[in-house]
Design goal:
about 290 residues, alpha/beta, TIM Barrel, Glyco_hydro/deAcase_b/a-brl
C-alpha cells in the first residue's frame, strides 16, 4: 500500500509539474461532460472533491450529457451499486447543488440482501477471478462458500426509507438485478438482468428508468441491443473519455474515481492518465477502453 501511494504521488506530481492537468482540460475536456464514477465514498472525501471541481467546472445531471455547453468544463456525478453508505452523502449533494445519478441493483436495495462481492464467500473465492467465470460458474463457486443469490440476511444496499429521503435530490437509475458480469451471462439471464431489473426499479420508485450502467463496464453489441430493447435512452460504460452531443448514448464514457482519493490524486485522476495507464496494463491497448471479460 505504501509503495502504491508513493507511485501515485510521483505520478500526480509529474502531471501537475508539467501542467498536463491544465493542458488536457483545455484540449480534451473543454466544455464537454466528464461523467465521474464513484461507488461508496466517504462524505468528507466527496465534499473535498466537489469543492475542488467547483473552482473550474459546472455540475450537470447525467440527462444533460449531450446538451450544448457554455465554454466551461462540465461534470456529471454517478455512483454505482446503491451501497447503504450513499445515504450519508445526501448533505454533500445538497451543499454543492449537485444532482447525482445513483445506479441501483434492484435486488440489493430496499431489501435485506447483500451485494455478492461484499459477502465473505467472494473474498474467499477471489472477486476478480469470479468476475471472469461464466455466470453459472460464478454462482456455483459462491455457493460452495455459503452465498445464495437473493438470500435474505445482512443488507448492504440502500433501504426503502433512505431511497425515499433521497429521491427529491438524486436520480435513481438501473444497474441490473444482481450485478453479474453481463458478458458472462447467457442470452436469457442477460436480457432478464437488464429488462426485469428496470421493471423492478420502476415499480419500487414509481418513475421511469431511462439510464443504465453496465456492471463492471463490460458490454458487447448484444448488451447494447438488450438495453435499447428495454427502453433505456443511455448507457454508461467504464471506457475512458468525455462526452458531448456526438457521443454514442449507449457507450457513454467515464472517468473512474477512487472512492478514497485525496484531492491531489483526484486532480490527477481527472486527467484520465491514471485510468489510461491502468487499462493499458490490463487490456494492452491504447484505446482507453476498459478491460472486457
Amino acid at each position: 500500500m505504501i509503495a502504491k501511494r508513493t507511485l501515485q504521488r510521483v505520478l500526480a506530481r509529474g502531471i501537475t509539474t508539467f501542467r498536463f492537468d491544465r493542458a488536457l482540460r483545455q484540449l480534451l475536456w473543454r466544455d464537454r461532460v466528464a461523467v465521474l464514477l464513484y461507488h461508496d465514498p466517504r462524505p468528507d472525501t466527496l465534499d473535498d472533491h466537489l469543492t475542488y471541481l467547483k473552482s473550474f467546472c459546472d455540475f450537470v445531471p447525467l440527462s444533460q450529457v449531450a446538451s450544448p455547453g457554455n465554454g466551461r468544463p462540465r461534470a456529471a456525478i454517478t455512483l454505482d451499486d446503491g451501497a447503504v453508505g450513499n445515504a450519508d452523502l445526501l448533505p454533500v449533494f445538497i451543499k454543492h447543488n449537485v444532482r447525482p445519478t445513483l445506479f441501483l441493483c434492484s435486488q440489493f436495495v430496499g431489501r435485506p440482501t447483500m451485494h455478492w462481492w461484499l459477502h465473505p464467500a467472494a473474498k474467499l473465492a477471489g472477486i476478480e477471478r469470479l468476475k471472469r467465470l461464466s455466470n453459472v460458474e460464478r454462482l456455483a463457486e459462491l455457493g460452495k462458500y455459503g452465498y445464495q443469490q437473493a438470500h435474505e440476511g445482512e443488507g448492504t444496499g440502500l433501504t426503502t426509507a433512505q431511497i425515499e429521503t433521497m429521491r427529491p435530490f438524486v436520480d435513481f437509475q438501473a444497474h441490473t438485478r444482481f450485478h453479474p458480469i453481463l458478458t458472462r451471462c447467457d442470452d436469457r439471464d442477460c436480457e432478464e438482468e437488464i429488462s426485469v431489473g428496470k421493471s423492478e426499479l420502476e415499480s419500487m420508485l414509481g418513475t421511469e428508468c431511462e439510464h443504465f450502467a453496465y456492471p463492471n463496464g463490460n458490454f458487447t453489441e448484444r448488451e447494447i441491443r438488450f438495453v435499447k430493447a428495454a427502453g433505456f435512452k443511455t448507457a454508461r460504460t467504464c471506457n475512458l473519455g468525455w462526452n458531448d452531443s456526438r457521443s454514442d448514448p449507449y457507450r457513454l464514457k467515464t472517468i473512474v474515481i477512487d472512492d478514497d482519493a485525496a484531492v491531489w490524486w483526484f486532480a490527477a485522476q481527472l486527467t484520465g492518465i491514471p485510468v489510461f495507464l491502468r487499462y493499458l496494463r490490463h487490456a494492452h491497448n491504447f484505446s482507453g477502453n476498459s478491460p472486457q471479460f
